[in-house]
Amino acid sequence: xxxxxxxxxxxxxxxxxxxxxxxxxxxxxxxxxxxxxxxxxxxxxxxxxxxxxxxxxxxxxxxxxxxxxxxxxxxxxxxxxxxxxxxxxxxxxxxxxxxxxxxxxxxxxxxxxxxxxxxxxxxxxxxxxxxxxxxxxxxxxxxxxxxxxxxxxxxxxxxxxxxxxxxxxxxxxxxxxxxxxxxxxxxxxxxxxxxxxxxxxxxxxxxxxxxxxxxxxxxxxxxxxxxxxxxxxxxxxxxxxxxxxxxxxxxxxxxxxxxxxxxxxxxxxxxxxxxxxxxxxxxxxxxxxxxxxxxxxxxxxxxxxxxxxxxxxxxxxxxxxxxxxxxxxxxxxxxxxxxxxxxxxxxxxxxxxxxxxxxxxxxxxxxxxxxxxxxxxxxxxxxxxxxxxxxxxxxxxxxxxxxxxxxxxxxxxxxxxxxxxxxxxxxxxxxxxxxxxxxxxxxxxxxxxxxxxxxxxxxxxxxxxxxx
Length: 468
Ligand code: TYD
Ligand code: MG
What we know:
Elements: E1 6-10, E2 16-17, E3 33-37, H1 78-83, E4 93-98, H2 104-115, E5 124-128, H3 133-142, E6 150-154, H4 158-165, E7 173-177, H5 194-211, E8 214-220, H6 232-236, E9 239-244, E10 251-259, E11 267-273, E12 276-279, H7 283-287, E13 298-305, E14 308-320, E15 328-331, H8 335-349, E16 356-362, H9 374-386, E17 394-396, E18 399-400, E19 406-407, H10 412-421, E20 426-430, E21 442-446
Parallel strand pairs: 4-8, 4-9, 5-6, 5-7, 7-8, 13-17, 15-16, 17-20, 20-21
Antiparallel strand pairs: 1-2, 1-3, 9-10, 10-11, 11-12, 13-14, 14-16, 18-19
Helix pairs in contact: 8-9
This protein binds thymidine-5'-diphosphate (TYD) and magnesium ion (MG).
């Protein structure tokens, strides 16, 4: 029998090298060469032979044919199912990424326990490479799911896992916790390296497609914020979800960043409690719970997360800086975008942040990526600079352009509706060109950033200055 061989491939240019080197001779990239299984070696567990030269002809069909209806299995955790696009699709591979300790194992154990409920009746297996059987049992006890018929195993060798699962009685759903602990003995590199992670995932995904198993892969995120290694896994799976949150906070957010079977940008909100993760049905109320009405530097942003409006407080602090280059610190938003908003406020509205440290924080541990938050950030900054609070019952949304103009954002009516539900009566918005109802909310339309001055009657630090 031929021994399984490996080769060294540059991840930047694809050049194949006989042995590992720090630098690729072909393209000059550093640290880009990783060990991979040579393609001749047949996938584990399959009888496939190497492809013949001629190939078979492919049948073409029309666009409007009989489609197979994807039947989905619901975990019963509403927030999870929605982010997954309405339940788990058989034969699909999902990657759940997140920092260590954020709650991935907890979430997935609760999810598989839900799937085994009599209404869904899916057979589920949980394979832990990280924790011992006892540790998982202890968690199950804490989550009060010990009586769910989940098949539990501790294993790290992919060959063993595949040999176990590749039968006609394969489970419907398999959790691999985590992909970084799995290894293929054909490769020499250690578990957790790019080549091991990629090759292990590839074998497991191939098995999942062949047997119609829903594969849930847990992936730890590296310090740089990517799932090890260089995002290779994201291309291989059907769905990528990130489980995020601040360690000190009890809120956790599940976010789909790629989904072949559903929408992306959906979020699910959870709260980590003593007895596991609980769904949060009304996240806006949660994010605004500790709000203090009367402080300057805070604005309530009416945002959209996927199909759902979410209200969240944006906090800004502007303080004199002892440093030559003042600090610009951001939590929960994009630092580059903050620099842009500051530059626009300086050059188009004459607000001066020179010599001042600027801190921006999205309260509650949420991460916002929408440009529609620009105006709320600008309002919070202007409020912090002038030391005057914004009206307590006001929400803000709108995108800021480089010339200082305020641009429309999507779903303005849905945002107002959510604000109304939570007792807000005013909104600072872009020009209201749509015919959509204003939901009984007093709308103050803004054409440009200089309209922000109207919010602060006592003009102190924020003074309109002739621009141009
Ligand atoms: P875990 O699911 O092990 O995280 P991950 O798999 O992402 O590494 O979650 C670990 C944290 O969650 C740990 O700090 C304890 C906390 N936790 C609770 O607060 N309540 C619970 O019911 C459980 C099971 C965990
Ligand atoms: Mg874990």
